[in-house]
Specification:
heterodimer; A: 177 residues; mainly alpha; Four Helix Bundle (Hemerythrin (Met), subunit A); 2 domains; 71% helix; B: 100 residues; Helix Hairpins; 3 helices; 0% strand; elongated
Chain lengths: 177, 100
């Protein structure tokens, strides 16, 4: 069980990272979209391995099913034959390199030195706490109780946000802007 | 149980790949996809900490982030379609109408 857990995590993590690299480097936007679906599904697998079953389903249906269909539709609507033959990367390699190095240094330093996470033991690479982590089961029920209990106001604000986004998308896609 | 640091490093790797995509690609659709990668990396962090602390609040926050990602994708792709209709391009460095 323990070994299976580890194997699942590393397989999903490897698939996610490799597909993410392919998303950024492919020339054809359709290929990027397909690899993005793979990365999102691998992330969904990691959610499942972390006992977030409800989020796993939401990720598969909403992200890989809904948002990616939107992306593929737009790729279809936008003429890509011209864009395919042009230079794919702009001249910001040095800017990107500096930003990425700074980000990696900051976040890596935080992760390596923050050994004070309670329950994580002396450091991030130490073995996990001997006591098994508390269970998050039944997951959907707990998420629902939290979502409609203490987080009901953010939920309503999120619904307003979705309404605004819907109206904005309709206005944006109208023939005469 | 996998140490929390491994999840953090996976999330860091995905985040940085997304940042590289946003900063170096010219195609706006792929820039939007890289933003989705970044949001996804944050979700991994939230869910990993939810599991570590046994608190479901992290998963609730991840649901809100997915909601934001959906709204952002809808509006962003609408903007791309409107822009493509006017200027016949999807390349970010040709979107310079505000520059003179």
């Amino acid at each position: 069980m323990h070994l299976l857990d580890k194997a699942l995590f590393y397989v999903f993590a490897g698939v996610a990272v490799i597909s993410a690299v392919l998303v950024v480097t492919r020339r054809n936007a359709v290929h990027s979209a397909i690899f993005l679906i793979t990365a999102l599904l691998a992330t969904a697998g990691i959610f499942l391995q972390l006992q977030a079953e409800f989020l796993f389903i939401v990720q598969v249906i909403l992200y890989a099913g809904g948002i990616m269909v939107l992306f593929v539709f737009v790729i279809m609507l936008v003429n890509l034959d011209v864009a395919l033959r042009q230079v794919q990367f702009n001249r910001q390699k040095w800017v990107a390199g500096i930003v990425v190095l700074a980000l990696a240094a900051q976040l890596g330093l935080v992760i390596w030195t923050a050994g004070r996470i309670p329950g994580a033991g002396p450091g991030p690479n130490a073995a996990a706490s001997p006591a098994p982590a508390p269970q998050l089961q039944p997951n959907a029920e707990m998420v629902a109780r939290s979502l409609f209990g203490p987080y009901v106001l953010p939920l309503e604000i999120a619904s307003v946000l979705l309404l605004v986004a819907m109206i904005g998308a309709v206005v944006m896609a109208k023939r005469k802007v | 149980m996998i140490p929390i640091g491994h999840y953090l490093f996976l999330s860091l790797a995905l985040f940085i790949i997304g940042v590289i995509g946003v900063l170096t690609r010219r195609n706006v659709i792929i820039i939007l996809m890289s933003i989705e990668l970044i949001l996804n990396a944050v979700n991994i962090n939230l869910v990993a900490f939810a599991r570590l602390f046994g608190d479901v609040a992290g998963q609730v926050f991840a649901i809100f982030i997915i909601t934001d990602a959906a709204a952002e994708a809808a509006v962003g792709l609408g903007i791309i379609i409107a822009f493509f209709r006017n200027r016949e391009t999807v390349l970010s460095d040709e979107m310079d109408m505000l520059k003179w």
